[in-house]
Each structure stands twice: as structure tokens, then as C-alpha cells.
Amino acid sequence: MAATVDIESVKRRLIEEREGVLEERRRLMEDTSRSMEEAVDEDGNDSHMADSASETLDRGIELSLEDNADHLIAAIDAALGRLEAGTYGQCERCSQPIAEERLEALPWATKCIECKRLEERG
Fold this sequence. Notes:
There is one protein chain. The chain is an all-alpha fold. The protein has a domain at 7-86. 69% of the residues lie in helices and 0% in strands. It contains 4 helices and no strands. The model has no long low-confidence stretch (mean pLDDT 84).
């Protein structure tokens, strides 16, 4: 683990981030439910075909955002697990410390910047 990491501070930040993502996900789910209810006319029929296409696109975007929120929550939970295990701040690929600046920007990072770049290049 990186020697300069304040475990309690990182833990608080990760928990705050997690709570924020959960709140945003809850709002997205409410918006998705509300948009689907509004997509149907009072007589129970779908609105105009263009409106239906727009609603379908909006719903797809909302579901994608919910999926991203789920992935972020899982990444935060994994980072909390690494804190508990004593491996937080250590690159999962090369085992070198992850730069403090990277962890500050992305506290759930699992790889140092060099290994992440290699991964992205394929």
C-alpha cells in the first residue's frame, strides 16, 4: 500500500462517493419510471410514433446511466475491500504503488497509469 495514503480519509471519501452514486441511481430509476408512465396517453394508447421513438431513446440512455452507476458502485465496493485487505493503492497488474495524484482523481483506481495505458492500447 502507498505509504502516504490516509486510510480513514480515503474510506470516508469512497463512502461519500458511493452514497452520491446511489442517490443519483435512485433519481434515474424514478425518472425512468415516470417517463414510461408519461409515454402512454390517458386512454392507454401509445402517443405518436416519433414520440415513442424519442421515449425509447431516452429510456435507453437512462438504463445505460443506471448500468454505469452499478459498475461504479461495484468499483467503489472493491476499493473499500482493498482498503480492508491492505492492498489499496497497489497496482493489480505490476504491484507497484499507484500515484497519489491518480488515487486522488480516481480513488477506486486498480492500476497505475502505465498499466492502465497498456490495457487501453490492447
